[in-house]
Amino acid sequence: MSQALKVSLTRRYRFAASHRLYRPNFTEDQNQRIYGKCSNPYGHGHNYSLEVTVFGAVDPATGMVANLGDLDPFVEREVVHAFDHKYLNQEVSEFREKVPTAENICREIYRRLKGFPRAHLERVRLEETSNNSFEFDGEIGGRELHKP
Amino acid sequence: MIRVTRKIEFSAAHFYHNPNFSAEENRRVFGKCNNPHGHGHNYVLEVTVAGEPDPETGMVLDLKELKEILQREVGERMDHRHLNYEVPELAGQIPTCENIAQVIWRLLEPKIAKGKLDRVRLWESPDLYADCTAQSSGDGE
Fold it and tell me: Which residues contact B7 (CB under 8 A, 6 or more apart)?
């Protein structure tokens, strides 16, 4: 009997965006102390690299967990088009209230991609720079993040 | 437990075609990967073995041995080959990253004498890879 295998597929996407880490309910001093130069008033930007991992049964007719012909336009529409060359604080409504840290961007991307109909979303991994990366698999404090 | 990963590269040709699909369906589902003349990739294979280091050698397994296994089982079978025609283990399957990774798992798993095969990660390009692992009971599909 052959061993049951789990197969996942990971695809990389890229977007460039600007943001500012700042909370209006903190004093200027607190913002500077907590967020440092990331709090500078005009914002700054990054070339983000996003890895999206989906898993599921490999369809014997196509050999695929997910067809990139389905996954690419979904991620492009839900994330890349919405975030690329945007000022996240002002142009992505979720970040009007929430600080667009890479952690929060990761969670927001996960929320947007969770509904991909062709396979299960396993994880999103976001590189903000080549030195910093962030992963989210839907667990918040041991709880599964509910589908929007 | 320690995980040890060894990488090898191979270059191979393939195309995607399902004989049960119409020509139009093949083009729609597989896009430019359906080109019957085939195309190729520089595949990068990362094989991870998990285990406890042997107290005598300090090693989970001899990486030179692992390299030889990868070379023999994967390199010699797939490097500079056409995956649709020249790899019997893939016969009747669409040679996607997902399927190649599973074939590689099944080739390697019985050959790993020390430690356990933990993960096969196959990169088709710097922007795409498939992972194959043993399914745990919590992964029910």
Answer: B44, B45, B46, B47
DSSP H or E run through B117: strand B116-125
Catalytic residue among B46, B86, B89, B124: B124
CB contact under 8 A, A9 and B16: no
pLDDT in tens, B16-31: 999 999 999 999 999 9
Told to judge if A38 belongs to the known catalytic residues of this protein, a careful annotator would answer yes
Query: What pLDDT is recorded for position B15?
Result: 97
Q: Tell me, what's the ipTM?
A: 0.90
Distance CA A65, CA A119 (A): 7
Instruction: Give the closest of A4, A13, A58 to B98, CB-based.
Output: A58
Where are the alpha helices (H) located in chain B, listed in sequence order?
Answer: 23-30, 63-70, 76-78, 83-86, 97-108
Q: pLDDT by residue (tens digit) across B78-137?
A: 999 999 999 999 999 999 999 999 999 999 999 999 999 999 999 999 999 999 999 986
**pLDDT grade, residue A24 (50/70/90)?**
very high
User: What amino acid is encoded at A121 in this protein?
Assistant: L
CATH number reported for the structural domain that contains residue A126 in this entry: 3.30.479.10
Question: Residue A54's domain spans which residues?
Answer: 9-142
Please report whether residue A3 resides in a domain.
Answer: no
Say whether pTM exceeds 0.90.
yes
Instruction: State the total domains in chain A.
Output: 1
CATH of B2-134, one of 3.40.50.720, 3.40.50.300, 3.10.20.30, 3.30.479.10: 3.30.479.10
- B83 contact partners, CB below 8 Å, separation of at least 6: B12, B13, B14, B90, B95, B100
Contact call for residues A146 and A107 (beta carbons, < 8 A): no
Contact B44, B7 (CB under 8 A): yes
User: Catalytic pick from A28, A44, A81, A85?
Assistant: A85
